[in-house]
User: Fold this.
Amino acid sequence: MSKGKLYIVLVGLSLLVLLAIIGFRIQQWTQSLVERAHERVLSVEEIRPVFLRITNRELPSKADNLRAIFEEGRDPHIFVRFDTDSEGVAYILKEFGGERVISKTFDADDIGAPKKSVSKFFTRLSFWQDELGVILFDPDSIDSCRILEYRGSRGYKILIDDQSRAVYIFAYHR
Assistant:
């Protein structure tokens, strides 16, 4: 083989290796974008702006122990958990209540009803919690609660624990 042909073969092989490396990097980059487009735990600073973007509503001013899991994408979803006071509960009931909102109340006398209803209420959350290793909601801790649900393009499910005043909100925007 002549030196010219050897040179062409080496340049060709170098280009193939370079293209393979570039292809591998592009595949890694697109995979990381896909992973970031799924669920993630939000920082406290991110929660309020993301919640407002999805629901077009603010969280109450008192929202202690604020935590959230967010799923981006074409139809973003957020699950928010926080502790509040009676004013915060009243704010939630006023801002998220209304004519087309389904409302239910369960108390400790409803023999197991709250736990059965509550455990089914946030079905998607159990998947998120398992995937992320973060526990924001334990249905066994609820004895009496109020539930609000609205089905629409900006829908939500809200559970208010009457004893601890913990509020759990699952909201989506289609």
